[in-house]
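Re: the 188-residue chain
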Amino acid sequence: MANYTFKKYTIAATGTPQPLVGTTLSAAAPASPGPITVAVADASPWDIYSLGFGAASFPLIYAVFDVGSFQERARVLKVVDGTHITVDQLNFAHASGKYVRLGAAVNSTYVQTTDGNTGNFLYIGNSPNMAKATMTYCIAKLAKVAALSQPTEFSDTRTFGANPSDASNWWIDGDSTGDGYVPSFGVV
């Protein structure tokens, strides 16, 4: 089993669910029938290529762009640098600031809070429409812990083996901007 591990992420804005693993476009991206390099705030979500396996080993790694009420998936061809990725095509134009999520088949999801967060909870769910107040589309609620204490965690292995989920389906929100978490995905 391989593990896709990532850096520490933080809650950008409370009350606004964000991708568990993703970033935003740092410049508008036009529609393109062929390969196009797009500017992102952080290309590290797709840096799984740096694990030494190369693009040929991960042919189905996607950038998932939000387009109003639906999404567009574009296959990632390469990570150009820390702020650019090249995708196979874009059928739609995308505005700067829009979310771009990691899309990949994953068999388990693990999230750990960071110690010393200031908000009471982090909320993990499966929709950009999740609501903390009613727990709509929420799957887990992780409590804060004091600095130098063991953080709380969430682990989901319900999609193991031949029935994977998609990394782009995971969302998070929190009670305080800047609170941190560390996500990872297991892949068979």
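The CA atoms of residues 28 and 96 lie 4 Å apart.
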